[in-house]
């Protein structure tokens, strides 16, 4: 029997070191231990992305199977208007009027037909749902759906989706068309209310130099006879990636500026932007930051707020306006022009599990004919 050569021994040693490193990385991302990490990596031929997808899918299936039991009721308790959360096993037919298109005298129990002006409003929610955090994820996903029942927005922009979360939404929110910005890992998505927003086409625009597989999801839609371009993205994370975020912002602003003048353009997402970065890039004169346009109201400034939101355990207080909405109205003569008229944060109520729907607050906006 031949004795292993020194080069063979070195190869084995390098392989063991590589696999140990992969196990450590897997355990860090998933919050699992080395044994679980080794199991999933080995089953997926030591390919990290496949192993992570397998882990999250299995965990989501387990979470939803356990948390969807009829005995549990886990809806948020909105302060603005009380609604009953959908039963865990039911589809959600989101046909209620939204706050943007219902009379002030309306309640969840008594509905009045909205006026023509109110019916012409476009409503939007953008939200990083933190699908990578699998703790209480079934309950938190149902929390999201309960907010969709409450607000029934025409358009929903979502970030940090994972495949099982998407399947959950497809099953529950049947009155929405769902567009996915990816298939693996985590990605963005859009939901369009079928009764009010018609999808014409969609595309995924890649960021050439991203380190985190980020992209721009774009959809051309028709809303009440108006052509609207919808965009959502999740810009590069972490303080040290400011240069990449600014590149991504420039690409988005270019797309918004160069869109045909008969089209309304609306972008929303988790930008991770700092004000200094936006100042360096600058916004085109035709594009506005909706929060700024509506008077920089303090109550909806911070969308990432560890002082108020304890979903993430961090040893510091961080209050940032990471989630932003940008708007460019149509400019052509004779084309209806929308303008932002309202903004509020959503997701501020704790669920029964003691956590919030996400570590980010969501943003609700409405736009009316100017």
Describe this structure as you would to a colleague.
This protein is α+β, with helices and mostly antiparallel strands and 370 residues long. It is 30% helix and 24% strand. The protein has helices spanning 6-30, 34-43, 48-67, 116-119, 137-151, 163-172, 242-258, 275-281, 290-293, and strands at residues 122-128, 155-161, 176-180, 187-193, 197-206, 215-223, 226-234, 264-270, 288-289, 304-305, 319-320, 323-328, 338-346, 362-369. The strands form 3 sheets. A 6-stranded mixed beta sheet has the order 3-4-2-1-14-13. Strands 5-6-7-8-12-9 form a 6-stranded mixed beta sheet. It has a two-stranded antiparallel sheet with strand order 10-11. β7, α7 and β8 (264-270) form a beta-alpha-beta unit. α1 crosses α2. Mean pLDDT is 84; it is low at 66-90 and 94-113.
Task: Give a topology summary.
Elements: H1 6-30, H2 34-43, H3 48-67, H4 116-119, E1 122-128, H5 137-151, E2 155-161, H6 163-172, E3 176-180, E4 187-193, E5 197-206, E6 215-223, E7 226-234, H7 242-258, E8 264-270, H8 275-281, E9 288-289, H9 290-293, E10 304-305, E11 319-320, E12 323-328, E13 338-346, E14 362-369
Parallel strand pairs: 1-2, 7-8
Antiparallel strand pairs: 1-14, 2-4, 3-4, 5-6, 6-7, 8-12, 9-12, 10-11, 13-14
Helix pairs in contact: 1-2, 1-3, 2-3, 7-8
């Amino acid at each position: 029997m031949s004795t292993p050569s020194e080069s063979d021994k070195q190869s084995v040693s390098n392989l063991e070191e590589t696999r140990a490193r992969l196990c450590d990385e897997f355990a860090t991302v998933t919050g699992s231990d080395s044994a679980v990490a080794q199991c999933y990596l080995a089953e997926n031929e030591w390919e990290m992305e496949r192993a992570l997808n397998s882990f999250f899918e299995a965990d989501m299936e387990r979470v939803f199977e356990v948390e969807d039991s009829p005995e549990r009721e886990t809806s948020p308790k909105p302060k603005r208007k009380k609604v009953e959360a959908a039963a865990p096993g039911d589809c959600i037919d989101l046909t209620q009027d939204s706050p943007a298109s219902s009379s002030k005298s309306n309640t969840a129990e008594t509905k009045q037909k909205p006026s023509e002006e109110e019916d012409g409003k476009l409503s939007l929610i953008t939200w990083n749902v933190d699908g990578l955090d699998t703790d209480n994820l079934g309950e938190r996903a149902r929390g999201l759906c309960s907010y969709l029942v409450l607000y029934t927005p025409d358009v929903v922009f979502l970030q940090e989706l994972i495949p099982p979360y998407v399947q959950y939404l497809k099953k529950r929110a049947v009155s929405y068309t769902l567009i996915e910005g990816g298939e693996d890992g985590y990605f963005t998505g859009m939901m369009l209310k079928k009764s009010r927003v018609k999808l014409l086409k969609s595309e995924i625009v890649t960021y050439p130099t991203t380190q985190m597989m980020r992209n721009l999801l774009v959809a051309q839609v028709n809303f009440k006879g108006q052509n609207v371009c919808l965009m959502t993205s999740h810009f590069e994370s972490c303080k040290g990636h400011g240069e990449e975020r600014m590149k991504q912002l420039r690409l988005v602003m270019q797309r918004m500026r160069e869109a045909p003048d008969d089209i309304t353009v609306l972008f929303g997402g988790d930008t991770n932007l700092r004000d200094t970065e936006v100042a360096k890039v600058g916004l085109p004169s035709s594009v506005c930051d909706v929060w700024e346009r509506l008077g920089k109201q303090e109550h909806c400034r911070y969308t990432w707020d560890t002082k108020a939101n304890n979903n993430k355990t961090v040893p510091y207080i961080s209050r940032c306006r990471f989630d932003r909405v940008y708007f460019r109205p149509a400019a052509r003569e004779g084309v209806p022009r929308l303008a932002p008229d309202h903004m509020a944060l959503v997701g501020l109520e704790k669920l029964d599990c003691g956590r919030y729907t996400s570590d980010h607050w969501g943003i609700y906006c409405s736009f009316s004919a100017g």
